[in-house]
């Protein structure tokens, strides 16, 4: 989003951009592996120091999550949270991915999605999750692969405070139930809303203690090597997935933007898929639209366009129920 704000214009006339000032180089010396590695090690050391300094706050946050609050009688309700799900059920989406991709874009009117949320007392993100969950339920049912247990979504959560423009990563990830075991879309929406509210309450307690921008020396080589080994072993084709799908909802520009005088017609996001989660649904709001970008591993989900059509159908189902609810009131 920050890159888009720098690239796109708010007016079709464009803008004048001053060319960058040329940098005068005294010599042609380039940084080598030693200098780059030393810089990475120093940065890692600084992050370790910061992690050590924030450890007490992290432990307090962990205590707040693990230790339940006292009720009116002074007792603590020990036990795992009701909505806590450690693993999702296995589906055709949860396999090792290949380097092949397939993509589908779909658009929903932002005003219609907001109407659904306002009518049923849910947030816009709850509506996005419910619409996607309904599409997944239809898709998996059509392939005779709908599990009895609800699917779990991995949802990115921004940890960035308002006005923070620092160039680093400040994001975490939580898992949420999608209620795909619930046939009625309104009941599914309420279940997702309840789970979302519980997740937001938990994140509010631990947000400040989660470390951000924590580097790992040699991460590109290490992570790519691990990914290659995991993919070749096909281990993720049999183990339970931590989540079944990635769903991300990102607010974009509420007004039209332009590029060199050309109006941007749509803003379909293209995200990534990972091993064990062969489908990613990312939603970008733009000028009264909700643009859904569905990207998948082509081997696992060759018919992603069908999933996109199910998404539109599920939206219409929720929208049709909104007038009924308003009339009943």
| Regions with little confidence, pLDDT below 50 for 5+ residues | none
Distance between the termini: 40 Å
Largest sheet: 6 strands, mixed
| Integer average pLDDT | 83
Total DSSP E strands: 8
Protein structure class? alpha/beta
Q: What form results from the Cα inertia axes? A: globular
Radius of gyration: 23 Å
Task: Give the SSE string.
Answer: HHEHHEEHHEEEEEH
* Separate helix tally: 7
Q: Strand arrangement, largest sheet?
A: 1-8-7-4-2-3
Task: Tell me what portion of residues adopts beta-strand conformation.
Answer: 15-25%
> Helix amount, in percent?
40-55%
Please describe the structure with a list of short key phrases separated by commas or semicolons:
single chain; alpha/beta; two-stranded antiparallel sheet; about 15% strand
Topology, please?
Layout: H1 2-7, H2 33-66, E1 101-109, H3 110-120, H4 124-142, E2 152-158, E3 171-177, H5 185-206, H6 219-233, E4 245-250, E5 258-259, E6 262-263, E7 279-286, E8 289-297, H7 304-328
Parallel strand pairs: 2-4, 4-7
Antiparallel strand pairs: 1-8, 2-3, 5-6, 7-8
Question: How would you describe the overall organization of this protein?
Answer:
- The protein has helices at 2-7, 33-66, 110-120, 124-142, 185-206, 219-233, 304-328, and strands at 101-109, 152-158, 171-177, 245-250, 258-259, 262-263, 279-286, 289-297.
- It is α/β, with parallel strands linked by helices.
- The chain has a 6-stranded mixed β-sheet with strand order 1-8-7-4-2-3. A two-stranded antiparallel ribbon has the order 5-6.
- The longest helix has 34 residues, at 33-66.
- The protein is globular, with a radius of gyration of 23 Å.
- The two termini are 40 Å apart.
């Amino acid at each position: 989003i920050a890159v888009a704000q720098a690239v796109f214009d708010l007016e079709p006339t464009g803008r004048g951009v001053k060319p960058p000032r040329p940098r005068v180089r005294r010599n042609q010396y380039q940084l080598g592996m030693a200098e780059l590695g030393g810089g990475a090690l120093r940065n890692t050391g600084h992050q370790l120091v910061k992690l050590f300094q924030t450890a007490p706050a992290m432990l307090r946050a962990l205590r707040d999550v693990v230790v339940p609050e006292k009720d009116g009688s002074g007792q603590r309700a020990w036990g795992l949270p009701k909505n806590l799900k450690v693993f999702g059920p296995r589906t055709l989406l949860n396999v090792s991915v290949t380097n092949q991709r397939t993509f589908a874009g779909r658009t929903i009117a932002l005003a219609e999605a907001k109407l659904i949320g306002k009518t049923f007392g849910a947030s816009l993100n709850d509506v996005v999750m419910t619409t996607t969950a309904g599409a997944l339920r239809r898709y998996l049912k059509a392939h005779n692969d709908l599990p009895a247990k609800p699917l779990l979504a991995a949802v990115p959560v921004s940890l960035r405070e308002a006005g923070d423009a620092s160039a680093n990563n400040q994001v975490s990830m939580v898992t949420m139930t999608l209620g795909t075991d619930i046939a009625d879309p309104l009941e599914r929406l309420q279940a997702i809303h309840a789970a979302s509210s519980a997740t937001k309450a938990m994140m509010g307690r631990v947000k400040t203690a989660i470390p951000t921008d924590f580097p790992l020396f040699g991460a590109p080589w290490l992570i790519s090597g691990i990914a290659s080994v995991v993919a070749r072993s096909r281990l993720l084709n049999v183990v339970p997935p931590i989540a079944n799908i990635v769903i991300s909802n990102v607010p974009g520009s509420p007004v039209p933007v332009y590029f060199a005088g050309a109006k941007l017609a749509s803003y379909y996001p293209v995200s990534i898929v990972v091993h064990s989660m062969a489908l990613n649904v990312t939603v970008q709001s733009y000028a009264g639209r909700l643009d859904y970008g569905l990207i998948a591993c082509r081997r696992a989900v060759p018919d992603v366009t069908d999933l996109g059509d199910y998404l539109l159908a599920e939206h219409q189902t929720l929208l049709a129920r909104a007038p009924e609810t308003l009339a009943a009131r």
